[in-house]
C-alpha cells in the first residue's frame, strides 16, 4: 500500500475506485466497504484509493482538547488498511483551503484531476465542499460530464458503520472488551514505548513494563485488569495488563502496565504492541502490598483460565 501525506503527492492511477471517510477503528462496517471497493477494482482492473483526513481541524485548533479520542491512531489505521490490501491511502490535512473549495471545485480538482476517480463509493449522507454544501446529488449530476460512476452505500450500512464506532468507543470506556472486539473484527490494540516506572514491580515478583503511548488522542480503555497478548520485537506473549492510578501505592499518574508471562528481558525503550482480549476485574485499593501480591497471583490464574477458554489447546 502506498501512503501519501498530502493530496498533492498523489499521481492519478488507472481506474481509481475511491472512497472517502474517517475509518476510525477500521471495524467490520468499514471492512465491508473496503471489500466492496476491492471487488469493484478487481472487476475493472483498477486500483483502490481511500481518502482520509488528518489531523482533524479540532486537533489543530485545540491540541489540548482531551475529548478527541480515537480507536486507532493514523499509523494504526494505515497498518490495518494495508493488511486489508488497500492500494493507496491519501491522508490529507483538513485545511482551510481544502474545506473552502466549492462542491464543484472539489469534484473537478480533487476527485477527477488529482485522483483520477473512475468509481466513487460513497455514503448517502456524505457532505463535502464549502459549508458542506456538496453531496451525493452533486456527484450524480457531474458524473456524466467527468466520466465517473457513483455507487451509493445504502443508509443501513452507513448507520451500521456509525453505530459500530460509537459502540466500540463506549464499550472500551466501559471495559467491555468482548463487545468492542466483536464490532472491530479483531482485538483492540495499543502501541507504545516501554518506559521506566518505580521499579517496584520486580520486588513484588511481578515486573510490569510501563507503556507510553505515541499519540495523546488514542482512546485508552477503562481502568482495570485485562488478559492481553503482547508483541515484543516480533514475538507474541500472553500477559496481564493494568490500567489505573495504582491506588494501593498512591500513584499519581494513570499507568498502562503489563506483566508478560514466561518472559524475562529488559525491554526499556522498546516498542510494544498490546492486544486486549478480556476484562478481568476493576482496580482495587488494597490496604497493603501483601494483599496486592496475593491478588496478582489470582489475576494470573484468572487470565490463564480465560486463555484456555479461548483456546482449549493452550497449555498452561
Ligand atoms: C495484573 C495487575 C493488576 C494490578 N492491580 C492493581 C490494583 O488492583 N490496585 C493497585 O493499586 N495496583 C494494581 N496494579 C499495579 C501495581 O500496583 C504496580 O504494578 C506496582 O505498583 C509496580 O509498579 P511499577 O511498574 O511502577 O514498579 C496491578 C498490576 C498488574 C500487573
Ligand atoms: N515478565 C516481564 N514482564 C514485564 N516486564 C519485564 C518482565 N521481565 C523483565 N521485565 C523488564 O522489567 C521492567 C519492569 O520491572 P519493574 O520492576 O516493574 O520496573 P518499572 O517500574 O521500571 O516498570 C520492564 O520494563 C522490562 O524491561
TrEMBL record:
Residues 183-308 form the Riboflavin kinase domain. Pathway: Cofactor biosynthesis; FAD biosynthesis; FAD from FMN: step 1/1; Cofactor biosynthesis; FMN biosynthesis; FMN from riboflavin (ATP route): step 1/1. GO terms for molecular function: ATP binding; FMN adenylyltransferase activity; riboflavin kinase activity. The keyword Kinase applies. Gene3D superfamilies: HUPs, Riboflavin kinase-like. InterPro entries: Cyt_trans-like, FAD_synthase, Riboflavin_kinase, Riboflavin_kinase_bac, Riboflavin_kinase_bac/euk, Riboflavin_kinase_dom_sf, Rossmann-like_a/b/a_fold. Keywords: ATP-binding, FAD, Flavoprotein, FMN, Kinase, Multifunctional enzyme, Nucleotide-binding, Nucleotidyltransferase, Transferase. It is an enzyme of class 2 (transferase). SMART domains: Flavokinase. Its EC number is 2.7.1.26, 2.7.7.2. GO terms for biological process: FAD biosynthetic process; FMN biosynthetic process; riboflavin biosynthetic process. It comes from the Bacteria. It catalyses: FMN + ATP + H(+) = FAD + diphosphate; riboflavin + ATP = FMN + ADP + H(+). Belongs to the ribF family. Catalyzes the phosphorylation of riboflavin to FMN followed by the adenylation of FMN to FAD. This is Riboflavin biosynthesis protein. It comes from Mucilaginibacter psychrotolerans.
Amino acid at each position: 500500500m502506498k501512503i501519501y501525506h498530502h493530496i498533492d503527492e498523489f499521481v492519478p492511477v488507472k481506474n481509481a475506485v475511491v472512497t472517502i471517510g474517517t475509518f476510525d477503528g477500521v471495524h467490520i462496517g468499514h471492512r465491508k466497504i473496503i471489500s466492496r471497493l476491492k471487488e469493484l477494482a478487481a472487476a475493472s482492473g483498477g486500483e483502490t484509493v481511500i481518502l482520509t483526513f488528518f489531523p482533524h481541524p479540532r486537533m489543530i485548533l485545540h491540541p489540548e482538547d482531551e475529548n478527541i479520542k480515537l480507536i486507532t491512531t493514523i499509523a494504526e489505521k494505515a497498518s490495518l488498511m494495508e493488511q486489508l490490501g488497500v492500494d493507496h491511502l491519501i491522508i490529507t490535512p483538513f485545511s482551510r483551503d481544502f474545506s473552502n473549495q466549492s462542491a464543484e471545485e472539489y469534484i473537478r480538482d480533487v476527485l477527477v484531476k488529482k485522483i483520477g476517480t473512475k468509481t466513487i463509493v460513497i455514503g448517502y449522507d456524505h457532505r463535502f465542499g464549502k459549508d458542506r454544501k456538496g453531496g451525493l446529488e452533486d456527484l450524480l449530476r457531474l458524473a456524466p460530464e467527468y466520466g465517473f460512476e457513483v455507487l451509493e452505500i445504502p443508509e443501513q450500512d452507513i448507520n451500521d458503520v456509525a453505530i459500530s464506532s460509537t459502540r466500540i468507543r463506549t464499550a472500551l470506556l466501559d471495559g467491555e472488551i468482548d463487545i468492542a472486539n466483536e464490532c472491530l473484527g479483531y482485538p483492540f490494540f495499543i502501541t507504545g514505548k516501554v518506559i521506566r516506572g518505580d521499579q517496584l514491580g520486580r520486588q513484588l515478583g511481578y515486573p510490569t513494563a510501563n507503556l507510553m503511548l505515541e499519540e495523546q488522542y488514542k482512546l485508552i480503555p477503562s481502568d482495570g485488569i485485562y488478559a492481553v497478548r503482547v508483541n515484543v520485537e516480533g514475538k507474541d506473549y500472553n500477559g496481564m495488563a493494568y490500567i489505573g492510578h495504582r491506588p494501593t501505592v498512591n500513584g499519581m499518574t494513570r499507568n498502562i502496565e503489563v506483566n508478560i508471562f514466561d518472559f524475562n528481558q529488559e525491554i526499556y525503550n522498546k516498542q510494544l504492541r498490546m492486544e486486549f482480549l478480556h476484562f478481568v476485574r476493576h482496580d482495587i485499593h488494597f490496604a497493603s502490598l501483601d494483599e496486592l501480591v496475593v491478588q496478582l497471583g489470582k489475576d494470573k490464574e484468572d487470565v490463564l483460565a480465560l486463555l484456555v477458554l479461548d483456546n482449549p489447546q493452550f497449555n498452561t
